[in-house]
Amino acid sequence: MNRRWGLLVAVGLVLTGCQTGGEAERAVLTGNYGSVAGTVRDESSFAALDTSEVYNLCDAYLKFRRYEPFFTCHDVLTQRVAAKDGYIKTRNDDVFLNADPAGNYMNRPYGQFYLKILKAEALLGLGRNAEALTLASEADRLAVENQFVDRPSEDNRELMALFTLGVSEGQRGSTNTLVRARSLGVVGMAAARVGDTARAQDAITALKELDTGGFFTRATDSGRRHWLARVQYDMGDFAGVVESLEGSGKVGAGGALWEILVLHAKLNPIAYPLYAAYGMSPQTWEFVQGFEGELMLNRARLRVGKVDQAKAGFQEILAEPRSKDFGELHYLALHGLAESLAAQGDYATALGLFRQSADVIEAQRSSINIDAYKVGFAGDKTALYADAVEAAVAAGDAAAALEFAERAKGRALVDLLAQRTEMTKGRRDPVQAASLLTEIDRLEKQSLQAAAAVNGATLRAAALDKLSAVDAELASLVAVRPVPAEKIQLLLGADETLLEFFFNPGADKVFAVMATRDKITAKELEAPGLEREVVALREALRRAKGETWRRHAAALFDMLIRPVSGELRTGMVSIVPHGALHYLPFAALWDGSGYLMDRHKIRLLPSANVLPFLKMEAIQSDGAGLLIFGNPDLGDPKFDLPGAQRESMAIRASFDKAHVLLRDVATESAFKRTASSFGMLHLASHGEFVANDPLSSRLLLAPGEGDDGSLTVPEIYGLALRADLVTLSACETGLGDVSTGDDVVGLNRGFLYAGARGIVSSLWSVSDDATEALMRVLYAELGKGASHADALRQAQIETRRRFEHPFYWAAFQLTGG
Hints:
By secondary structure, the protein is of the alpha/beta class. Helices cover 53% and strands 9% of the residues.
């Protein structure tokens, strides 16, 4: 290769940050991320790859949003950099720029920059915005303090001249625009998402000021504008996004030379060795470099009312087959086109595209096997479901509105539970169920490979059908398969109404679906400031005095119940909350003369999809009676619950066939060993909830016999209960983590899956006297044969006569039943 051709190839390699010779590099540069990311590797399989190939794999996993293999890859890359004494590569790693084989190719901070920025981008995609901001800030500091440029030695003077042609004097020798735009972009996006608007605006200013007038920097000006637009988008400056991405940017002498070369290459691709070296056309290069920018531009056009332009742009993106290889971004293109069509009133086509988009998200979510990240990832994607519900309501398609609401709620739980081995314990055929789960997981990964997508998805669906035949309830927690609206209607009582809410906090909108056996309707509710009202009501109630609560309870009744009251039957109302409504004591809503509980029996459901799995007939256990765990000894007097112990003894005195375990015998082991023999379970113990890792939430029992006393959510899912009712009489046991991904992944859902028919739990800690009074009546009514809902309602009415303020009785709620 003569010097001039070598010079141009070297420039191309510098621009990409890669070297020739690897299929992974070629796939990454041509945008075929799926062909790389579809192969999941463990750490040992990276041994045959050089560091550049590992880097490209990490980048492909990130672009394709395959987070599980990304973090494995990142760990390997971190080890490689450490083995190179902090360098990401050295000169003897490189074929073309090897003027000094013994010398180091880049400085140590360069390696640390890329390790930090890659991980920061992954955390941003998973909704871990504060962590992303910290890492990206560290990376940006490295970019500012160090000279990051794949710079040839002074002997390569022709190449150095191209590097600096058109670059301002201040930038000469440090064409740091190439990496600084990336770190500023991630800093700005993360800052916007955590509410630090000043810092996000600083990032925007810095991105606008980056010098892109040179030959070398002009090549990546589209990248600078892309990062600028992403920050502007997260800041809600959609007009700014359009301006950034439709504008051409600054063009200096070097930039003009770059554009001339690109134009020449389009006319004669062989004349531009970069394309020939990687087997791609200039059009391919432009697509790969411009895909995310085009997507962002059309999303912004939609927000500023340029619907026709946005629609055409999304259609053009989706016409390119490789758009599927951009993982998460593919769902955004489908989502954008669906929004465009909905804005034009074509709801039928839009709803079909919303379904396709949801399919992409749900396949993508299943690739995250890091429990603490899953809900954040889900929460970041709820806009799709919110837009789909809104479009369905506008179209008058209540069944579709229910479908999308259920998909949004069910997926977060599936993500958290699908990889748990505890899920198969206690099932009818645990060995076969475990085998099918393993097969489904393998086919899930296969279906994400571009070459095997159709076959893998088909086989996975068949495996899910087999699992459904063995254990339908377990299958419902492995994949989102919404129960059809007509089947849900058939499962409702003759005098029952399903009232399902879907809350979109970003738009301050609430949608309600009302279903009975013979009718289903949906409507949008006027609910400005809903979250504030929920918080205000809870704060007023927890003061346990005064009448302030009544104003907020009335406002919430007017928002949520009055507009749909004509659709509610006079008997049971089964409420499926969403978002902030999980915190709401519905029984205390005030219509001006009475409570909602005076009008209706009330029960809560985590989703309508649990209806097929609730035992509709009374459950007969091997052993009759009530098992009570009271005031377990946790080894520290500050955790003692003497009131719970008195409550336990009082219940035993009023209930035949009650068995009580107190203090040091109220152990986790005893519960696991004996709970399946009782028809009712009562646990008067502390509950503890972990917001950033919901599966670590637990009930605190006494340790012993090899158990630590922490009965966690996964352990509950592994139980085989036959309980008609589980009562959790403890501190806020009903309140799990309500993320933007929704679905309270708390103890209630776990007990339902484990075999309980209903759960009574509390939203806040209630005084001992009031709790004891309510529980006495509850069990007395159950002993007379009352239903769960009737028994709880009567217990609340009786408790109101002695403790009038709703603080004392409204915290208790029935889930299931």
